[in-house]
Amino acid sequence: MATARRSRIESLSNPLVKRMRLLREKRHRRAEGLFLAEGLRIATEAREAGVLPQWLFLADEGAAGHPLAKALVEATLAGGGEVIDTTPAILSKLSGKDNPQTVVGIYAEPKTRLGDLDRAAAPIWLVAERLRDPGNLGTMLRTGDAVGAGGLILLDESTDPYAVEAVRASMGAIFTQRLVQTHWDDFLAWLRAGPGELVATWLGKDTKDYQAVRYAAPTFILIGNESQGLPEAYAAAADVRVKMPMMGKADSLNAAVAGAVMAYEVLNQRRR
Amino acid sequence: MATARRSRIESLSNPLVKRMRLLREKRHRRAEGLFLAEGLRIATEAREAGVLPQWLFLADEGAAGHPLAKALVEATLAGGGEVIDTTPAILSKLSGKDNPQTVVGIYAEPKTRLGDLDRAAAPIWLVAERLRDPGNLGTMLRTGDAVGAGGLILLDESTDPYAVEAVRASMGAIFTQRLVQTHWDDFLAWLRAGPGELVATWLGKDTKDYQAVRYAAPTFILIGNESQGLPEAYAAAADVRVKMPMMGKADSLNAAVAGAVMAYEVLNQRRR
């Protein structure tokens, strides 16, 4: 663990600022194993979940006097991270937003694997296949937190969960939900090596009304790609295929909405 | 009604292309009373709902031979609209996307008022207050279509429902759901002049579990601003305030998700 450090950066051309700014690009996040989260609220959620930033950038105005910011600074320093007092212009450069938050944290990517998960730790797990939209991804993490899910398992080529937009949409759930990026074959092998019911939301044949099924814990809710839905083989491998009623012209819901409606049904059955 | 017309445009500096391209900006949409929808699928949804474009731009390759594109061309011409055969580069310029769809339609904004709504026409209506995110707005329209809602009533200063991102996220529901932009006072006066239960999703005090209430039709589901929720006065004026269970660290759901979970509860009660 490094010595506790606090410094000041005011130059837009500072090398650390330049380096951290690159974290808005996926290949740099991958190379560094780091990601960026904005906002005192999200950084506080992280702290409460025991996750501290390696670098914490604070704009003097606004953040300095806030008790949550003080707690964050102390925890970051105690955890061996570096605290950097800086300007709104630099925060804006880091986050890519015109009106930046007063706090930007740089966190290590957890790199959780399937084998790290304790499936019995939660009654609900969300599983998404080739999710394309970072907003949907973050929203699913946020929903997972709300329903008491254990985490989100991303299958195949999904959008990067550590993109700024995904982290923002998660409202901090990126720090409270476990997150695994894997492939279908590996997921299915892991799933079948233990208890767990795989429930596919599916628009094809052989489906049941989503309220006509009694779900067994742990329930793995499988949601398909935004425009194409699930591959047929994935749906076929599920223990049950379910569909929400569709009363209008459309035949599908937004992926994050479908996941949430399903997850609340499973939660509601458990509440009864 | 104008004479049926079909023409070809290949120049990026064509005056009509320049004018239609400006529809990506809200003030031009407002001034023209027009908006832009991309994609054969959405334009077909519109046609099936009886809504035809004033201008239909088609990229020759891809679209020309498709039976749905042919049906769209015929309907547009029969409806007095203009069909414009054009290039992918021009569609890209119109939609602002690198990989444009093969079809872009320019539609008249309906400008529906509260007085135009038949509240008895549907058991569910969605009402959103100061919605900020166009993706959330489009997603709520899409959910409204799925649950058989009559439409979406936008209160106060919400994001523009005719923005390209909102239209895209609606997946065509912008053409099947009624859409009214109004203010709280006018909405409440209209609501109280007829039957209707106003249900507020509310994180404050005096709430009931959202499954403990029996909802009466027409049910108006009121969802607050993404970051601030509903103003207290709005929640207080509702017939009932409800809350979804929150099992995690977070205290709220994404606005479009909250609206969907509520709407499916109301629909599910009616299905029983």
Please, could you describe this protein's structure?
2 copies of one chain form a homodimer. Helix content of chain A is 37%, strand content 21%. With 272 residues, chain A is of the alpha/beta class. Chain A folds into 2 domains: 5-108, 2-Layer Sandwich (60s Ribosomal Protein L30, Chain: A), CATH 3.30.1330; 114-271, Alpha/beta knot. In chain A, α7 (134-147) links the parallel β6 and β7. Chain A is elongated and about 60 Å long. The model of chain A has no long low-confidence stretch (mean pLDDT 94). Chains A and B meet through α7 and α11 of A and α7 and α11 of B.
Fold blueprint:
Two copies of one chain form a homodimer.
Chain A (H helix, E strand, L loop, with lengths): L4 E4 L6 H7 L4 H7 L1 E5 L1 H9 L6 E5 H4 L3 H12 L3 E5 L1 H8 L7 E6 L15 E6 L4 H14 L3 E5 L8 H7 L7 E5 L1 H9 L4 E5 L6 E2 L9 E5 L8 H6 L2 E4 L11 H17 L1
Parallel strand pairs in A: 1-4, 3-4, 6-7, 6-11, 7-8, 9-11, 9-12, 10-12
Antiparallel strand pairs in A: 2-5, 3-5
Helix pairs in contact in A: 1-6, 3-5, 7-8, 7-11
Protein name (chains A, B): RNA methyltransferase, TrmH family
GO molecular function (chains A, B): RNA binding; RNA methyltransferase activity
Organism (chains A, B): Sphingopyxis flava
